[in-house]
Amino acid sequence: NMSDKNSSDHIMVSLPTMQCSTCKKNIETAVKKLDGIESINVVVKEKTAHINYDKSKTDLAKIERTITAAGYDANDKKADPEAYKELDDCCKLPKDQKGK
Q1: Coil, strand, or helix at residue 50?
Q2: What pTM was computed for the model?
Q3: How many other C-beta atoms can be found within 10 angstroms of the C-beta atom of residue 79?
Q4: Cβ contacts of 83-86, under 8 Å, gap ≥ 24
């Protein structure tokens, strides 16, 4: 078991409002800035983020806050409305897009 040797952990975060590859890039960029993130892979079609992190440096709550601060829902936490407003149109929910 790896966690005996170090404090690395893996979590999956649900990203229900994520729409596209721009979202993927935004979320990955934001989360990578957190101390203790080893890797993040956002899977657009699953609307999930697979995150490996050092649990002595960060935790799920911080990761969720970082994602919501970037304008996206994370698990059951709601996106920051101001950040959401600033997202590219393609990253917003279809009901909020300015229309095609």
Answers
A1: strand
A2: 0.91
A3: 21
A4: none
Distance CA 46, CA 80 (A): 22
Per-residue tokens: 88: 């590219």
Per the structure block, which two tokens stand in for 85? 């407003």
Angle of CA points 66, 3, 59, to nearest 5°: 15
Tokens of 68: 């919501």
Note the pLDDT of residue 100.
53
Query: What Cα–Cα distance (Å) separates residue 28 from each residue in 16, 40, 97?
Result: 15, 6, 22
Mean pLDDT per block of 10 residues along the chain (100 residues) reads 68 97 98 97 97 96 98 98 96 86
Contact between residue 17 and residue 93 where contact means Cβ atoms under 8 Å apart: yes
